[in-house]
C-alpha cells in the first residue's frame, strides 16, 4: 500500500484533471473519505492520498488482496478477498483512536463484502445480506437503538444489498427493492415528512411512486439519495440548494422528499 499525494502536487484543483501517477495502472474502485482518497487497483493494491496525520503503518495491507475500501471521518476500512476487514483509527469498541491498521476478528455468517463510513460510524455488509455497525451511537445511526457503539450486527433488517452512511444517519436497500433509514432525521433525510430520530431501520417511502424498486442508496452529509430508474433526494431546501443549485428549490417542500430526476 502506498501513501502519497498523487503526482506530488499540492493545492486545490478547480477543474477535473488526470493523475499521472495512475498511467499504466488499472483502477478497480475509487473511494473518498472526509479528508482522504483511496484508490484500489485490479491487482488488489491500495493507493492512498490525503491526510495521514496519525502516520499509520500502511504496509500492513501489502500481503492481502484488497477488493473493497471506504473512508469515514478520520478513519478508513479495507476488506480483503477472503472477507476479512482491516480498520485504521477506529476500534471494535467504537472509539476513534490513533492506532495502527488492525484486522478485526468478527464472528459472523458469510463474509464481509462492502461497507460505508460516516461521521465516526461505519457499516459493514456481508454476502448473506446482514449489516454490522460500529462507532458513535448518537441519534440511533447504528440502527441498534441505544446500544453501545461496539461492533455488532443490526438485528432488525435482513436481505440487505447496499449500505451508505451520512453525517448522523444511515440508509440501506434490500433485495426486495425497499430502502430503510435510521438515525438523525431533522433535515428530512428519510423522506417521510417527519423530522424524527429513528433508532432502528425504518422503511422509506418514494412518494408519489410507492412501487419504486430501489437498487442503490447514497447518504451524503445531511441528505439521502435513493436510486431507481429515477433519483429521489431527501433533505430540506437549504441542503438541496447547496447540492444542486437554486433553480431546484422551488419544487421542494421543507422536510420532505423530492424526486429530482
Molecular structure report:
- The protein is mainly beta.
- The chain has 1 helix and 20 strands.
- Strands 1-4-3-2 form a 4-stranded mixed β-sheet, with no helix packed on it.
- Strand 6 and strand 7 form a beta hairpin.
- The N and C termini lie far apart (39 Å).
- The N terminus and C terminus are likely disordered.
Kindly list the characteristics that best describe this protein.
globular; disordered N terminus; 4-stranded mixed beta sheet; 261 residues; mainly beta
Q: How would you summarize what this structure contains?
A:
The chain is mainly beta and 261 residues long.
| Count of separate DSSP helical elements | 1
Give the termini distance in whole angstroms: 39 Å
Structural classification: mainly beta
Main sheet makeup? 4 strands, mixed
Low-confidence stretches: 1-8, 239-261
Q: What gyration radius follows from the Cα positions, in whole Å? A: 18 Å
Secondary-structure map with pairings?
Elements: E1 2-3, E2 27-32, E3 36-41, E4 46-50, E5 66-71, E6 76-80, E7 85-88, E8 102-104, E9 112-117, E10 121-126, E11 131-135, E12 152-153, E13 160-165, E14 169-174, E15 179-184, E16 197-204, E17 216-219, E18 224-227, E19 231-235, H1 237-244, E20 256-259
Parallel strand pairs: 1-4
Antiparallel strand pairs: 2-3, 3-4, 5-6, 6-7, 7-8, 9-10, 10-11, 11-12, 13-14, 14-15, 15-16, 17-18, 18-19, 19-20
